[in-house]
Design goal:
Elements (H helix, E strand, L loop, with lengths): L1 H24 L24 H22 L8 H20 L15 H27 L1
Length: 142
């Protein structure tokens, strides 16, 4: 039962994150200043390619689908690599994201005074760690 609930929670989280990326893909600007790392409060001149935003959205929706399948609500015969590897790889990816790359992203970042870094410390890194922990708990309990 816990695996079912946690799988649904991850499905919902990944779906919401995928929707945000589609929103930004189609020109949405809400929250955009807080989701792209910048250096020392410089103007954000980084232009994320639309194909990258689309790819991230697709990956997030795919992760959500993988956990929806895991919930057992919707039955799809999945390839063995999903059941053998994906349910460990996905949490590992998000735990690594939470740890970060030690400059702009993660709990151990050096740059801490930008809008992104503040949002990363309060929202993004804890969410990534939570996703990783939930994914591991699902694997260990199902």
């Amino acid at each position: 039962m816990a695996g079912l609930i946690l799988s649904i929670i991850l499905f919902i989280i990944f779906t919401i994150l995928g929707v945000f990326h589609l929103y930004w893909l189609f020109g949405g600007v809400w929250g955009i200043k807080k989701v792209i790392p910048i250096r020392n409060k410089e103007l954000n001149t980084i232009s994320i390619p639309k194909t990258a935003t689309l790819l991230v959205s697709f990956i997030l929706f795919s992760f959500g689908l993988i956990y929806f399948i895991k919930s057992g609500i919707f039955y799809i015969i999945a390839p063995n690599w999903i059941t053998n590897y994906a349910y460990w790889i996905i949490p590992f990816i998000f735990i690594l994201r939470a740890i970060g790359e030690f400059n702009y992203v993660g709990f151990f970042k050096k740059i801490k005074n930008t809008e992104f870094s503040k949002a990363d410390s309060k929202i993004f890194s804890p969410l990534c760690l939570l996703i990783g922990i939930i994914g591991i708990v699902i694997q260990l309990t199902t």
